[in-house]
């Protein structure tokens, strides 16, 4: 076995856990097709980067593989991501008709149902985090809710989306662009690392800070690569409409700095992420999944 | 002093606490006008029935008047209510332009910002419930989040809205109508009573069950009275468009059973609410605010 095959096995096992849990916990029986719209938005698509990050971070700090709190946090984070895509795709936002190679939720179920499905997915994320306290300790529940709510909210993802809305057609400088992406995309990725670490044994301040730094850098790298892929990859490979940001005159790293410098920035961020993992002081074998996920983020082709 | 003036003083003091907290806790500085859209949706309007219910239930079970957990739960519940109004009013839902006598959020700020403001208000509700655990115990935080998430979600408010969407132009029977309203409106009112009770000392099973029954009956009464007011009151008094349900051929208690029987049902529910309070076994003086709020719900004119 080499490291690549170790990670492949780790990823497949954890993807299966996440898919099984999502399929079991997002109930099709909810009233009037709402459950079906929600399942359509969540199941059978997506790379599941965010839930994998939660699980990898939990294992990095020494949580057992079958930790229920981490699985719940992983799935909750994916629901927040899924709801944001449903709402983002709506006609009053990005007006996108294709997502993960399928018609978007509002195309399939109508705008009103898409709006409700997104709202209900957000609520369901917080249901996932609050099972009976015999299953997850109240302190872990409260900590994860606090992290996820703040990462999703007006000083997190939603705030980043508001900056994005206001910035179309404006020239942002790199600091402004970083701030937008730190909130819009980065906050949830950072939250994933932090929730995962919260589900395991308590860590030193140095370890927690290093993991948070890893989450921040990874979030930024993710967005830089996203911007690169938007101009270098076709819609079929991406599973969503390519070239959309450029067509909408949205600010991107590529638009700001050019393609080659954006690629160099992505490489530099990958090195910073690696350094943060080293700084955590955690055992190398437990860091393997986090390290491999960071590599995957930077080297992905869709 | 008579009971009416006692309640008037109680209500004014608690309304002031809620308004102060909302104004302080919904931050105008959030990026790109998002905070302003959220404040526009939440502040300076509304009867604050839901937060008052939380505070009244907390005091009924013996929580001190200045209980921070109850104030946070009260404001969180109001944010959920406010976000649901913002999204309900959007063109793809009810397409309403007037709310509490002001232009609706999407008229004032645009649809995209209204969508985001609603999303961010939901997240902020869960931020309110998760302060540092030195302020509210983790067990209370987890319990309130669990109650609020379930009351808001696909087997709560959002599920009721989905039934509402699917039911336009269909003739529901009374059981179906009750189910819709139990979820759409009732779930949040019941949740208010339950969160309030969670913030005080632990209660017997009988007391908790009686308070939940009070919350359920009150929720139903609220909706019956809403349907009555929709046909008996003008838009200026309501602060929103009157006659809208009838015009949209939406199922209502008045459409189903006629105006006079709907009014008799409201009276009967008021008696059931009173009985539930008696069954709680809680001291009469502590029940005063809950009792007066129930009377207010049934006798309100807007």
TrEMBL record, chains A, B:
GO terms for molecular function: metal ion binding; prenyltransferase activity. InterPro entries: Isoprenoid_synthase_dom_sf, Polyprenyl_synt, Polyprenyl_synt_CS, Prenyl_diphosphate_synthase. GO terms for biological process: terpenoid biosynthetic process. The keyword Nucleotide-binding does not apply. PROSITE patterns: POLYPRENYL_SYNTHASE_1, POLYPRENYL_SYNTHASE_2. GO terms for cellular component: cytoplasm. Signal peptide: none annotated. Its cofactor is Mg(2+). Pfam families: polyprenyl_synt (PF00348). The keyword Transferase applies. Keywords: Isoprene biosynthesis, Magnesium, Metal-binding, Transferase. Belongs to the FPP/GGPP synthase family. This is Polyprenyl synthetase.
């Amino acid at each position: 076995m080499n490291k690549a095959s170790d990670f492949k096995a780790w990823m497949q096992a954890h993807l299966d856990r996440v898919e099984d849990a999502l399929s079991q916990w997002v109930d099709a029986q909810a009233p009037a097709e709402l459950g079906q719209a929600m399942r359509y938005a969540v199941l059978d698509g997506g790379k599941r980067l965010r839930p994998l990050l939660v699980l990898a971070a939990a294992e990095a700090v020494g949580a057992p593989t079958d930790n229920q709190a981490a699985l719940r946090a992983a799935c909750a984070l994916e629901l927040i991501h899924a709801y944001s895509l449903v709402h983002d795709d709506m006609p009053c936002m990005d007006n996108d008709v294709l997502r993960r190679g399928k018609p978007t939720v509002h195309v399939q179920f109508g705008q009103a149902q898409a709006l409700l499905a997104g709202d209900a997915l957000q609520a369901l994320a917080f249901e996932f985090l609050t099972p009976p306290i015999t299953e997850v300790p109240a302190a872990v529940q409260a900590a994860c809710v606090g992290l996820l709510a703040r990462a999703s909210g007006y000083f997190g993802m939603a705030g980043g989306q508001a900056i994005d809305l206001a910035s179309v057609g404006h020239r942002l400088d790199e600091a402004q662009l970083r701030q937008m992406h730190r909130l819009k995309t980065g906050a949830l990725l950072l939250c994933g690392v932090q929730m995962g670490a919260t589900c395991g044994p308590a860590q030193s301040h140095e370890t927690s800070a290093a993991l948070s730094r890893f989450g921040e850098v990874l979030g930024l790298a993710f967005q830089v690569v996203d911007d690169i892929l938007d101009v270098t990859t076709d819609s079929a490979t991406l599973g969503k409409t390519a070239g959309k940001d450029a067509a909408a005159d949205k600010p991107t790293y590529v638009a700001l700095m050019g393609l080659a410098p954006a690629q160099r920035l992505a490489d530099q961020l990958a090195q910073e992420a690696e350094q943060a993992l080293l700084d955590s002081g955690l055992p190398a074998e437990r860091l393997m999944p986090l390290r491999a996920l960071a590599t995957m983020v930077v080297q992905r082709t869709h």
